[in-house]
Amino acid sequence: MSLRYRAISWNPQKRRYDAVMAASSGLYLALFVGVSAFTNPNATIETLLIRAFGTAALLLLHVILLIGPLCRLQPRFLPLLYNRRHLGVTTFVMGLAHGGFALFQFHALGDTNPLVSLLISNRRFDSLANFPFQPLGFIALVILFLMAATSHDFWLKQLSPVMWKRLHMLVYAAYALLIAHVALGVLQAETNPLLAGVLAAGMIVVLTVHLLAAQREHAMDKQPFETGFVAVCALGEIPEKRARVISLNGERIAVFKHDGKLSALSNVCQHQNGPLGEGRIVDGCVTCPWHGYQYLPETGVSPPPFKERVATYRVKLIDGVVYVNPEPVGQDGILSYTPSV
Amino acid sequence: MIQRLRKTHRLIFIALAVLLPLLFIAALAVRKPMPVNQPFPPQLLRTK
Ligand code: HEM
Ligand code: FES
Description:
The complex is a heterodimer. Chain A is of the alpha+beta class.
């Protein structure tokens, strides 16, 4: 991987994404405060803001958690993935506003430091009904902060992709902490079944979609170990300028068909492990569907000045059947054939 | 590396699919009814 920092630059698509996100967040907050002020006239503005920001942050976190597996199951959702980083940062900001108002409302008026008060004022760890649910939200907020702060590609390079990915998997811990934060917190007093219903529905959707996607990937990984060339599909099964993704010996390989040639590359993008085989050949390059990193199909190397490289594999075509050797090679994973018209 | 991540992700979600619903149901089960104010005894009301 190159040491060069490679910015994914601003473009109209990104601006549109951010505009839609900002407008829907603003609309949600305004609607929530407006409707609650009407249905619950005794609530103070602080309470309404705490609730509006808290629910908005949790809602956004659900969207973030759903984007990944939904894209795996249905490529139609790919545009959502493109700028997921900004969704994450917005979630943190909303969570911070919620936590900040809550800290002010419940912990700032005593003689103890509000953060200390947050952590020590309730020590009923032995009781589910009275459990100190606020520190759970605080830990989740710290995780969201770490993720937002390191979400830039600069940190991906500094931390190494493995460490970065591990850190960002903490989002699942944050999600579990927040379910506990709400279930052991506001749900203990809130008898209106709406909140419990919405929380349960969100949880069922997140868990189901992740399990379905994971199960599909697991089924693909379970194939027996192979040596030598392995028949993977018929030539006709690969659409022009696109790929078919196969799993050989635990590695995902994308077999691309383009201009009378076949080439097999690792399916794993060097940027953030995006699935190259779900992308297309654009301007002669395999283009990652997530953020557009490019690789030459012949060599697996990014076009200059970039220096990323993915492994390539040898391909054979016999009687219209495509064979791939699971042993990665250097520069010669390409095969020419005469396309039948 | 990517296969290990996939495996970790799958294990995390199998664990969450068991633990989160359990936590949610337990949280609903331990809920106590909110105390309700009894109406003020009329004999204590004094109207001058
Ligand atoms: C310092 C961190 C946090 C503190 C001190 C905190 C505190 C609180 C408090 C006191 C409540 C109950 C409010 C009420 O009675 O209406 C609450 C509820 C809630 N919190 Fe947090 N929280 C924190 C972090 C978070 C984060 C990071 C999220 C989501 C990303 C979140 C989501 C929620 C939700 C959805 C509710 C239920 C709706 C509501 O009542 O506001 N909290 N939190
Ligand atoms: S994962 Fe970001 S470009 Fe491929």
